[in-house]
Amino acid sequence: MRKAWVYKRKHIKGWWCGWYEGGKRKAKALPSKALAEHFRHIKYTELNSDVFTSVVHFDRHTISTRNRKAGKAMPERPVPEETMTELSNHVATLPDGQEQLFADKFNTKKWDRIREQVKFPGLTFQVLRRTFASLLAQRGVSTAVTQRLLEHSSPQLTNDVCANVDPVLRQAVGLLSVASRV
């Protein structure tokens, strides 16, 4: 398991997050300890993203994951039918004997190339998770359901992660005319 850590340097403003990547020590300066801890969590997730295996259930339109290190099975997550159709079409094109979606291990360098191709350099898996959570909240999905989908340990963590605006508050603000808000 690869780890990231947070530390403070003497006579230098801010907090630092350090980690090893490709055999080299790397670090990033951040203005506050809270941001450094948040970045550490993101970096830890990124560095250890290969510890999970997934099983796609085409008949049930779900994906279930298993943490190889802890041996803990995660619940099945629903996947939209259109996505499963595209995934099924992709699997049909795989060479005989290939059981994985990708022929080789997915890593950060591949992800960097994909981000460059689509011109989204700051797009991370954590950003995708936050966007997913925020979109669910904006559509009125309860915090408890979002928490289960993201496998968060508490509803507070889910609320901290997503831009959770109560649909009732959103509707109330929508009743005001634009002129009254300006």
From TrEMBL:
<dbReference type="GO" id="GO:0006310">
    <property type="term" value="P:DNA recombination"/>
</dbReference>
<dbReference type="InterPro" id="IPR011010">
    <property type="entry name" value="DNA_brk_join_enz"/>
</dbReference>
<dbReference type="GO" id="GO:0003677">
    <property type="term" value="F:DNA binding"/>
</dbReference>
<keyword id="KW-0233">DNA recombination</keyword>
<dbReference type="InterPro" id="IPR013762">
    <property type="entry name" value="Integrase-like_cat_sf"/>
</dbReference>
<dbReference type="GO" id="GO:0015074">
    <property type="term" value="P:DNA integration"/>
</dbReference>
<protein>
    <recommendedName>
        <fullName>Tyr recombinase domain-containing protein</fullName>
    </recommendedName>
</protein>
